[in-house]
Every structure is written in C-alpha cells, then in structure tokens.
Hints:
Layout: H1 3-25, E1 31-38, E2 42-50, E3 55-62, E4 70-75, E5 81-86, E6 95-103, E7 107-112, E8 117-121, E9 128-131, E10 138-141, E11 147-150, H2 161-172
Antiparallel strand pairs: 1-4, 1-6, 2-3, 2-5, 5-11, 6-7, 7-8, 8-9, 10-11
Amino acid sequence: MNSKMFYAVVVLVAVMAAAAGYCHFCYPEYMLVLQVKTYENGPRNVNVLDWDGKNHTKSFEIGNDLGEPSYYPIDLPRVMPRDIFIDQLASEGRYEVDRITLRNEDTSYSWDNQGVCTSMTMPNGAIKREPCGGDQPLLAMADNSHLKITSIPRSEKSLNKTRGIFAGLFSFM
C-alpha cells in the first residue's frame, strides 16, 4: 500500500471515529433502575421516545418470579428521552413496584411505591435532595398497566457536540 493510500485510510477512520463520537457521546447516559417484586418472569421492553419523536426499544429480563425484591438496572439507548414506557411487569396483581429511579450524570429522579418523586442533583459537588417540582418528570400507569415516565426535561449536558467529537477521536487513538 502506498503512503497516499495509507494516509487516506487513516483520515477516513479518524472522520468515522469523530462521527461515532458525535452520535454516541453527545448525549448523556440514562439508566432506569426498577426495584420490583414479581411472580412472573420473562422478557420485557422499555420504549424510549426521544425529543425528535423516534422510538427506541431496550429489552430486559425479569428473572425472579418468587416475589422477592429484585433490582433491574437498564441502560437506556443513548438518546435524549422525552417519554419512557415500561412493559407491564407481570399480570395484574402479580407484581409490586417498590422504587423506580431514572438518572443521568446531572440528576436522579426516584419514585417510591406510593408514586412520590424525589430529585437529587449535585450542584457544585454538594448533594441536593428535594421533592420533584413542576418541571420534572411524571410517573403514571397507562390504561394497559404499562408504567410511563413523561415530560422528561432535556439534560443540561445534552447535545455537547464538541465533547462527543473529541471523545470519538480519543477512542480512535
């Protein structure tokens, strides 16, 4: 391979790495943690509707059907979520939700088994915990017994394109 061809391949790979970084690292990571007791197991889905109106699906497995408390951490697709829809966890009366947490690198929202929401942020390195207010997500049960988290605010760190491009280039090196 001659040197011009080698440099062309290196430039192409660097551009692809920057583009991948832009697409992947410009959105913050979101994690959904379900703390539940169920009497049924099997595959379930979480559907994430982003701010562009696109639906993204993430699958997870309910493994414990003995009614014991279980944690299911679910890494959500790396998009800016507006609404999240969680499949029915089991048949009616065969599950109990103890806590649901939605978090990213800026904020954590938790709902207890009564549906009471608490938000936690770390401005200037100090933990600030307070009841959820009007501009924070809402948890509800849909008519089909699916759980839904709606009105998720855009993250402070959303669309950090420069961070994404540099992260992509750094991963290339």
